[in-house]
Structure to design on (73 residues):
């Protein structure tokens, strides 16, 4: 997940890809949609689809990478 406010003005996202995600505290979060992007790690560029959330979602940073990403990698 990544906060929508961190998108560049030219970034496009797919609003029909909205999902409901259960937070670690048990509350449900509805995402705004998804964004196809590249995750950069050292010299490697990894294509990945992230879910966008509002700034009201209580994330300590700009986003959160979950177990699904690490499983895929």
């Amino acid at each position: 997940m990544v906060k929508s406010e961190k998108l560049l003005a030219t970034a496009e996202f797919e609003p029909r890809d909205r999902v409901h995600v259960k937070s670690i505290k048990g509350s449900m979060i509805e995402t705004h949609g998804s964004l196809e992007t590249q995750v950069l790690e050292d010299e490697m560029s990894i294509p990945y689809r992230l879910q966008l959330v509002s700034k009201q979602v209580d994330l300590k940073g700009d986003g959160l990478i979950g177990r699904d990403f690490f499983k895929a990698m």
Notes: DSSP finds one helix and five strands in the chain.
